[in-house]
Amino acid sequence: MTMNRRDFLKVGAGASGSLMLSLSLPGCSGMPTGYKEETGEWKPDAWLEITNTDDIHFTLARVEMGQGTYTGLTTLIAEELEVDPEAITPRFAPVASEYRNPLYKLQLTGGSTSISTSWEPLRTAGASARQMLIMAAARVWNVDADKCTARQGRVFHPNGLDSLRYGQLVELASKEVIRGDVALKPASEWKYIGKQRGRLDARAKSTGTAVYGIDVELPGMVYTVVSRPPQYGGRVKAFNESEVRAMRGVLDVFEIERGVAIVADKYWSARKAQNALKVEWDNSDAFSLSTSEVFVSYRKAADKDRGKSERSEGDYEGAVKKAGKVFEAEYSQPYLAHSTLEPMNATAWYKGDSIEVWAPTQAPDLGRIAAARVTDLSPGDVTIHTTFLGGGFGRRLTQDFIEEAAAVAYRVKKPVKLIWSREEDTQHDLYRPAMLHRMQASLEADQLTGWHHQIVGPQLLDWYVRNAAPAQYPWAPKFMYDTLGKVGLLAEGIATPKDMSAIEGAIEYPYNVENLDVRHTHTDPGVPVTFWRSVGYSHNGFAVETFMDELAHETGEDPYQFRRKLLKGQPRHLDVLDRAVRMAGWDTPVPEGRGRGIALFKSFGTFVAQVVEAGIEKGAIKVYKVACAVDCGQVVNPRIVEDQIEGGIIFGLTAALYGEISFEGGKVQQSNFHDVQLMRQYERPEVTVDIVPSTESPTGVGEPGVPPVIPALGNALFALTGKRQRTLPLKADA
After folding, report:
1. What are the Aldehyde oxidase/xanthine dehydrogenase a/b hammerhead domain coordinates in residue numbering (predicted)?
2. Which residue in 150, 184, 143 sits closest to 166, CA to CA?
3. Backbone dihedral angles phi then psi of residue 401, each to the nearest 5 degrees
4. How many whole angstroms separate alpha carbon 613 and alpha carbon 621?
5. Are 554 and 697 members of one domain?
């Protein structure tokens, strides 16, 4: 195809409507197919759209819950497309197989994988678009495309003077074909990647124009609240339906699978009616243990079964027999709530042959399965509109709130908004599991010769597979959903990925010890659990790095030097360890009344070392400083890395100081922020973050700040008081 400039201008002047360029991302299956009326699904690959009016839209396949995907992923596209990131408008992706996270084969945001899985595909998409636009302009000018350049949304003629806007070129560019691989820009030419820039969602969030799930408003919308059994597994036996139905503003009262739903014209009318609701619960099959009984069951399980071997090197039993000393310790961690500042919510509108759902979900394809479960619809009849999320931390990977909203909407046939109260959000969360760790080490003089770690507790897949398995096969009839879940569990580690949630961080033990034995004793008392920020790394980090500190004390060595000598052949571990120590002034005297503690942990491919300086003031633990070194490979936006690492530190300190969900007779004892406390602004320590310059592929930063800060704080308190704490949360008077 050739076209002179005059003919091109004629075409451009006569064009109308929105011309667009859709791009297929490498690594994703299929080509753009447009909207399919017969299924109600639009199935492009992750795609870029450029209109003839120079509007640029980027479909964001990962959700934005504060972690920075809105900015980071857009930056990758912008860099190669040669436009300012602010010139691009991101929009959240619909449910489509092309948007699945390649690591999990599900359309979810989690595991600190957004940047790492998008690093090459999104840059390639931007580069491909740029190249096609350049090729189109070269045909207009009848010049060599290699001599044309692109910058700031325009293609420039080899003479450096003439240029064409991207919008003028989209129709012609859509006809171009790139043969072979497209070249990506070298790092020396990057304008945006690696640079400190503001967040693209900052203005919308600071002006209140960003739409979170709880902000959704629809014409004729009604409100619902759900009363759930106080013990997990309880069922409705009877309730005062007629009395509640007669209350002002109440439109309907009925039982759903998860409890009793009240529908009203206003939210507070629904809450007022809920206060008058009296439910008699059948708890014959409900969870009825107390927290102390959970740990009794863990210890019995550990005594009975040493567990499945997850990593075995050398001869640990032989090392124990030869050892001059064998040191043992047991660590325990409680159940933890997520405490997202936006409580669970969803808005659903059942329309007879379809249902639309607006929700702050981390997994929209699982949300589609959840809505289909409780209606007469198939997943293809369900449309999920993902909103901004007011915090996720893994909680919004589980879709119970969408299931409830859809069940109510199916009954009332109106747009209906479900909002959980803070108390409901706390008492009906799916928690970070309580875990028990039995540690043992063999020592010969000051040498660590053997390491044994027995992890006792549940796996998350047991609870998550219910909707995750059907989401991988959305074509399957609903009567197969439960079967798919059971098959997924049976095939774990064979046909489905191995569940690493209990053991991650323990099997990647980085220290050079000849004899290793890491085991998992799988036991599940029946408390509903799900992913929590940093997942298994959170509890294994505490056990591993606290035990390492105890071993250093047993050998009489400095905790930093003890770790350092065991990290031969681990240059990235060593680098962050040395950097954190230098920042903290490890070898300088600590101020009176304070102690320093250190911890090192790799999670989600990111290396993090932290030194915490803490003390005790007025009978309470006070954290003064946290020095953190992080190696997350190539950085896209240093400011977001710092924010996320600092956020992870605050999140981890909250868990270390206050985090605990306890059960008594199967009932959660906590309810709101007065007894599930968050770290307040005035308690915030001074945090310094040192980012290691790197050309390695980027890894995640949303979660890796959490695991090391908890043991580092505990180790600091030991340095101050001489008392070792092996149970969380940490206490000032331990």
Report:
1. 207-285
2. 150
3. -70, -35
4. 11
5. yes
Do residues 610 and 709 make contact, with C-beta atoms less than 8 angstroms apart? yes
Tokens for 70, please give them: 């809105």
Q: Are residues 151 and 52 in the same domain?
A: yes
What gap in Å lies between CA 529 and CA 432, rounded to an integer? 6
Q: Determine the length of the chain.
A: 734
For 246, other C-beta atoms within 10 Å of its C-beta total: 11
In-domain check, residue 437 = yes
Q: Is the pLDDT of residue 172 over 90?
A: no
Residue 178 lies in a domain: yes
CA–CA gap between residue 257 and residue 235 (Å, rounded): 8
* Contact between residue 417 and residue 224 where contact means Cβ atoms under 8 Å apart: yes
Residues 564 and 658 in one domain: yes
**What is the structure's pLDDT at 734?**
85
Q: Tell me which H or E stretch contains 611.
A: strand 606-617
CATH code of the domain containing 161: 3.30.365.10
Both tokens of 636, joined, read 């896209």
CA distances from 571 to 216, 483, 565, 568, 607 (A): 49, 47, 12, 8, 11
Q: Is the pTM of this model over 0.85?
A: yes
Examine residue 203 and state whether it is found in any structural domain, yes or no. no
Same domain for 258 and 132, yes or no, is: no
Based on the fold, state whether residues 117 and 261 are members of the same structural domain. Answer: no
Q: Domain total for the chain?
A: 3
Which run of H or E residues covers position 631? strand 620-631
Where do the DSSP E strands lie in 78-205? 88-92, 149-151, 154-156, 163-165
Look at residue 202 and tell me if it is in a domain.
Answer: no
Domain boundary among 132, 162, 193: 193
Place of tokens 């505990």: 714
CA 545 to CA 451: how far, in whole Å?
Answer: 13
Q: How does pLDDT run across 158-168, given as a tens digit for each residue?
A: 999 999 999 99
Q: Which two tokens stand for residue 454?
A: 């027995």
